[in-house]
């Protein structure tokens, strides 16, 4: 669910776009995992309890597009949420790296 645009913004913000491709991808993979974990927690908080089993099932078995479609029907402003969570995780990463 993390768009290519968000990934490119993260690379620019962290200044890793000029790193060797392998190193930049390693950093991005770890950040994406952290963003997806944080996003899943936020989504579970926002979804009604009765939607949790369906969300879990869809997220384990369906494509990102189908997961996003399901979530868009349940969570208004999903794109804003994804961007906000990504920004928060990147900020934490930058603060930790200082």
Architecture overview:
There is one protein chain. The chain has one domain (4-97). The protein is 80% helix and 0% strand. The longest helix has 26 residues, at 21-46. The protein is mostly helical and 98 residues long. It contains 5 helices and no strands. Helix 2 (21-46) packs across helix 5.
Quickly give the structural class: mainly alpha
- Stretches where pLDDT is under 50 for at least 5 consecutive residues are none
The total count of helices amounts to 5
Helix content: over 70%
Radius of gyration: 15 Å
Order of helices and strands: HHHHH
Shape designation: elongated
Largest pleated sheet: none
Q: Which structural traits does this protein have?
A:
98 residues, 5 helices, elongated, single chain, 0% strand
What's the quick description here?
The chain is mainly alpha-helical and 98 residues long. 80% of the residues lie in helices and 0% in strands.
Secondary structure topology:
Elements: H1 4-14, H2 21-46, H3 52-61, H4 64-74, H5 78-97
Helix pairs in contact: 2-5
